[in-house]
Amino acid sequence: MKKEGMKKILIPIIILLACSLIVFLERKGVILKNINNDSIEALEFTDMVETDTECLIVFDANDNISIGVKDMMAYVLGDMKIGYDVTKVGDISAVDYSKYKTVVLALEEWDLLGESIFEICDFVENGGNMMAAITPRIGVVVRAVAQKLGIVSELEGYAAIMGFKIEDECMIGAIDGQDIYYLSEEPMEISLDVGLSDKAKIYVSSENGKVPIIWKMPYGEGDFVIVNESIVEKFQRGFLCMAYSTLNDVTIYPVINGSTFYLDDFPSPTPGGDSEYIERDYGVDVASFYSTIWWPRMLELSSKFNIRYSGFIIEKYSDQVEAPFETNTLASQFTTFGNMLLNTGGELGFHGYNHMPLCIKGIDDGREFADYNLWASKEDIIAAMTELNNFSKGLFPKAKFTVYVPPSNIISDAGIEALTEACPYIKVIAGTYLPDEGSKVYEQEFEVDENGIIHTPRVTSGCTMSYYDYVTVFSELNYHFVQSHFTHPDDTLDVDRGAALGWETLSNNLEQYMEWIYASAPMISNLTASELGTAVLKYDSLSVDREYDEDAKKLTVKLGGFAGDAYFLMRINEGELGTTENCEAQHVTGNLYLVHATKDEISICLKG
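Above: the chain's sequence. Below: its structure in token form.
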């Protein structure tokens, strides 16, 4: 056998044996490891600071697309902790532009602006900024100001694009400076077909480099930034954030800074499913495959990338939704896998007594999905979650179970109420970031509810990621500086999740994704699920007051809602990084830096 083949076999086995030794020593009391991060309740936050209003969003209240762009832009600015006002295009003649640094046009029909477009141009010429958040329609107004926007070609129509090429390493994930991110296999006519002035700086172009997608054009003392595409979906947030950050000498905004990998249904009983492809490739049953092939490979990946998995327990696979709930007496698989995970720095959370989403009959009838049963009552959910808690605590007495993952990412408000009543120590719920109308998923944002529940949505899943998955993660790296991905052991049993490809191909796909993440953002923090919850709480609680002294080239940032430390992405558009106070700035890519603040007031000086 070749050395390379022998290595592939021996490395996972060595890792598995090492972890087994750790579990043995831990049971004998030799290892006493602190497996929990600092308590969320222990955080102390400073008083809030006031954020100046620097941006005006203009939208068309009679157009649903414009309303969607306005809402998305408002969400982006809110997450960047940038103050903004909103006005309808019909009221724009009453705007006092001296109150703002930037005007964002969140509408396609610029002809509605009328003569006001020239007031906006004067505002930019005198040192303000204007950003177009969506492709404008060709009309009288666009033609009148085209040259000011940097357009030198005739405005004849729209170009079809299939994806994006990132220029000049302006975004995280553009490893070689010109990475391409595809959106679809079919061209989409969503961009103006234009040629630009040599003075325009192109940040993003179409996949073939022929169509400018995001560019900046200086005009007088200010700048125009144009987003020349008209998709209104969540992945667009990262591009809007990047476009806005190219304005002014320097832009800084808070981020989460976290990379988390979730293992749903782990540990759990060995599930049923089609083992055809496991038998085809390995000649073993499902239980043997999990313990001798799947888990050693997952440990190999965690070791390679310093990942600490978060596993989510299922006590039984059943469709039972009424009490009483019996304890699973076959616990050896739980303790073996669970202790290995914990002793490699990982974490355990709850997935459910069984795989029935927490939705209640008579309350959540509209949330019925597939073969899942609605729970008979709130009391039955409480009884089931109490049993899961007792079962898990009995097996892992040192663990703190603070994170819950809804089965199939489905849960209702009534289910959350029952969950938190049964398990008041659950502080974090991890559903999904992207909507999916077919499965009625629990779509989330990275935020904290008024009741204190922290939301840490998972952005992607599985081992067969699509173009759209990659572009969405790419967006999130540039927007929240976050990555959150989940897989299941039984991905290898489900044809819809790629089982026919075989585990070797699936695991190589997963490894390729991990390699891209850590090549794109090697400084991103590897966090467990509860640690990501803490990071989201710190991020969501922040308020930001920015002051920039143009003469001294000094940025001062005062932070409210500060709890020990905070992270930011900073784009330096004019000059270079100089000295810092109460923070560290680490180069990420291009003119982008990750800033780690250790006090509630930081300063950054530029040079050049």
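The longest strand covers residues 212-219.
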